């Protein structure tokens, strides 16, 4: 299993992107610094998407919105399931012909 490490800080990623744009290769930077050449290429591609120079994927803002909407959707589904269970439980407790007392 591959070792995992904390994500690189945004300032470091930005610096790597700028170095690639000045003419250094991702492979050269990978040998000099810790991230892989593919990670550096991914950062460059994402920076280009964020700047509107590429249209082959989601920008960082769109990715964050997608994460937020998925979290919200998951929470709403959980709440709906809880309410459905509570409704079924109350329907069994009260039963047909019984009064709720109110």
Can you offer a commentary on this structure?
This protein has about 100 residues and is an all-alpha fold. The protein is about 65% helix and about 0% strand. The protein contains four helices and no strands.
Q: Quickly count the helices.
A: 4
How many distinct domains? 2
Shape: elongated
Unreliable stretches: none
Structural class: mainly alpha
Q: How far apart, in Å, are the first and last alpha carbons?
A: 61 Å
The total count of strands amounts to: 0
Average pLDDT confidence is 92
Order of helices and strands: HHHH
Q: Whole-number radius of gyration?
A: 25 Å
- Biggest β-sheet strands, sense, barrel: none
Strand fraction equals: under 5%
Helix content: 55-70%
What are its keywords?
102 residues; mainly alpha; 2 domains; 67% helix; elongated
Write the topology of this structure:
Elements: H1 10-21, H2 26-32, H3 37-50, H4 60-94
Question: In brief, what are we looking at here?
Answer:
The protein has 102 residues and is an all-alpha fold. The chain has 2 domains: 8-57; 68-94. The protein is built from 4 helices and no strands.
